[in-house]
């Protein structure tokens, strides 16, 4: 069906769904494999550089973020494996106990490095290098590392340069589909309420309501994938515009699913306060009809909310329709409240349970309104600076323990410089993900200049180093 759409309207489909052309990912994977093989063969990394195209195939994932992540984990796993293998191959060679030692050590190393699914790549790389043995092991290890680097770099370049995908459409469809599913659930419950009621029916609907968490998780995964597709992606502005609307809608819809489950629980609990033969009389026919009308009104508002999440039409018009449906829902709720009104002194249990049911209805209306509300703050894709900064600080701490001569003043200067570099990387990645023409012109006009923060940090570092040299000269003069 999708292929027919592209064949009948190729220009419209290409402009509307750039990066989702049928067969595009297959073409990108094939191109990456061929280019990786050509580069590795021209560099003569090995007699048959098949590892380079294999790495390129494995790292070309759905998003640029996943491609970079897979590449880094694969490079680290191969590097760890070959280092262990070279160390043992030059000393003992291949035998049963050296093989066991390599497998055990590399598996532990992979877990320590938190390589996840790439943990098994560490012992595999080590065993392949260990099988060569002797003086040829370092050359085989170097070739394996070079080919992995070539495949990873080519895979990242191809996936970044050729229509890097953004998954706004699937995320919007998932959130919209979740809203539609909740609307269908409430309509079916309303139909059941009008047809009759019993303890068994109430229990079945409560069980069905508890199963609404699975589609919520599926929609959340789709939205997370869309958020990841904006990282390091020149087309990230599309995700930046849609993410606040989708995340706001999904969060409120998730609360709506919880409220619906609570509502079903209140209806079910009410049947336990009557004898089994009278459980159908837990609510009067008029109250059941009014509650069914409330659920139909909430379902209608949820349908309009699905249009807001899909984003296929003007948002202001869709939000206005949601507000109209909520006004009608409020009127129906008032009618239900009058029908459920009881004297707390006469029937305290009914008064409490009816109040809980009306509270659930009110909460459902509030959450639907919140789901359609425009987001307050903009969104930017997450960046990679936190983890590298922590890793760099661990390296600095290790160097401090190994080199006691490092003073507190120089340590602070190094960390200030490191923080400035991290902030500069953050700003560069943010500009890449959310390009701003005005900011780009400003950067072009001020090329070569450093910001006041950078100048202050580097000046402080230079002053601290100069003070250290002066103190060292004074100590040498006293000696």
Outline the fold blueprint.
Layout: H1 2-8, H2 10-16, H3 24-42, H4 51-59, H5 64-89, H6 96-112, H7 121-132, H8 137-161, H9 168-195, H10 199-210, H11 213-229, H12 236-270, H13 285-310, H14 315-339, H15 348-372, H16 386-402, H17 408-433, H18 437-445, H19 452-478
Helix pairs in contact: 1-2, 3-4, 3-8, 4-8, 5-6, 5-7, 5-8, 6-7, 7-8, 9-11, 9-12, 9-13, 10-12, 11-12, 12-15, 13-14, 13-15, 14-15, 16-17, 17-19
Would you kindly provide a brief summary of this structure?
By secondary structure, the protein is mainly α. It has three domains: 2-161, no CATH class; 168-372, Up-down Bundle (Methane Monooxygenase Hydroxylase, Chain G, domain 1); 388-433 and 450-478, no CATH class. The chain has helices spanning 2-8, 10-16, 24-42, 51-59, 64-89, 96-112, 121-132, 137-161, 168-195, 199-210, 213-229, 236-270, 285-310, 315-339, 348-372, 386-402, 408-433, 437-445, 452-478.
Outline the low-pLDDT stretches: 1-19, 402-407, 428-455
Q: State the CATH topology of the largest domain.
A: Methane Monooxygenase Hydroxylase, Chain G, domain 1
How many individual β-strands? 0
Give me the CATH architecture of the largest domain, please. Answer: Up-down Bundle
Please report the first level of CATH classification, the CATH class of the largest domain.
Mainly Alpha
What is the makeup of the main sheet?
A: none
Q: What is the global morphology? A: elongated
- Could you give the distance between the termini? 87 Å
Please give the domain count.
Answer: 3
The helix/strand series, from N terminus to C terminus, equals HHHHHHHHHHHHHHHHHHH
Count of alpha/pi helices: 19
